Amino acid sequence: MSAPVPLPIGGRPLLAAAALATALLGGCASFTAIDPDDAFSDPPQGVELTGVPYFPQEALQCGPAALAETLVWSGYETTPGDLKPELFIPEREGTLQTEMKAQTRARDRIPYRIRGNHDAILAELHAGNPVLVFQNLGLGWAPVWHYAVVVGYDPQDHEYILRSGEHERQLTGLDRFRRTWDRGDNWAIVVVEPDHLPATAAPANWLRAGLDLQESGRTDAATTAYESGRDRWPEHGGFHVALMNLHYGQDDADAAEDAARRGLDEAESHAGVLRNNLAMLMLERGKCDEAGTLAADAVASVDADSRFADAFRETRETIRRECSAADD
């Protein structure tokens, strides 16, 4: 996102209604309608997640209501009232996206941002994941910020089906949805458990999601996210490195070693980092010969100008120095 998205204000326009009406007399808004055939890569199939709960939105409470709907769907029992103290900012009359994500993580769920296109929304819906979206129901210069939950799409009438405001089943035409969502920077997330990968998940983004959980202090959930990513993309060394480092930080040397060795067996990337870190662990365990071999292999695996080169050489020298001292 190139710039912070303004705070949603739950349906309260920035300009008084009379002033807005007067301003609109001066001209007509123009836009290019979207062709339904161009919105999707393939002809869309209809879908509706009828079991997604609905919480009627109280004044200015679209954020807590939308997040509660997606959290409950993910298996976490809550209500908008439970979330309001953590989400709603009275002086701003709204909820920040950063807080929506932070409170999702605080409940051991991942707020995974999907790509901002209609194909991604449909893919998630067909995978059983409702999509929480951010919209501007007003105009660019007179925004009305709003959160809603997309639960379905009707290709016959070209309409999205939303949990929105006071409407449990709001039908919104494809073109109107596109315009309001575009003005919200096409922001959309799915709220999932850390062992439930979204349909459109990408390895780098899922790894980042796990790290966000870990940095939030949710280490058990982060471990699960890393493990599910590793199982889905075993060739991506980042998950193996993350698991090794997390276990090492928890003083679980056995689990850290297992994670590193599995990574060296399975991964197609990050081999140098895995060897370097495992070398230091072997040094701590008094296995100087293996530590030296791993460190030398790590140095040999990267170019001299690699961003890891200096760190790898330092590890090698540390092992040589400490193992030599142990022999004296």
UniProtKB/TrEMBL annotation:
GTP-binding as UniProt keyword: no
Keywords, ordered alphabetically: Signal
Top-level taxon of the source organism: Bacteria
InterPro entries: Peptidase_C39-like, Peptidase_C39_single_dom, TPR-like_helical_dom_sf
Gene3D superfamilies: Cysteine proteinases (3.90.70.10), Tetratricopeptide repeat domain (1.25.40.10)
Ranges of residues in domain Peptidase C39-like: 51-157
Position of the signal peptide: 1-33
Full protein name: Peptidase C39-like domain-containing protein
Organism: Aquisalimonas asiatica
Organism lineage: Bacteria, Pseudomonadati, Pseudomonadota, Gammaproteobacteria, Chromatiales
